[in-house]
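Q: Sequence in, structure out?
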Amino acid sequence: MLLVELLTEEGVTGRGYLAPYLPRSLKYLAPMVRDLGARLAGGPGGAGAERRRRATLVHALAAQACDLVMPDLMRIGGVTGWLRAAALAAAWGIDLSSHLYPEISSHLMRVTPTAHWIEWQDWAHPVLGQPFLVKDGFIHPREVPGNGLAWDGDAVRRYAVEC
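A: Exactly. Output:
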């Protein structure tokens, strides 16, 4: 699936999918998506939330189907997959923004050569002992060993679901 998302300065938003697509069809879809983004939003077109493999990212970059890359940390293969996607984005000179999981992505953006934006949401806050601070548009990871995640044990137990 190819996700087309529109966000304009005037506050107009929209989202739609072009589906199904094959990686080789991107060379035909890319000009249309770029033109649509330029006409409606005047901004960049992104690819990534649906990128689950490095090969599909390579196809998107080769077809010039995106102005930025947004790998989903859990779908691209964790830290290793992210670093591979970051290397590809850097080799193509394309900005890389995060998609979800800001608590981990914020660390990875520090070692991403073409780091752009961190997509922020506070979905994990209810189960974190010490949520990350976002101030003046910047995320401030905790200065502790590891990734900085500290769970609120009581909250985790409260929200636990038996499977």
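The beta strands are 2-7, 13-18, 46-47, 68-69, 95-96, 133-135, 138-140.
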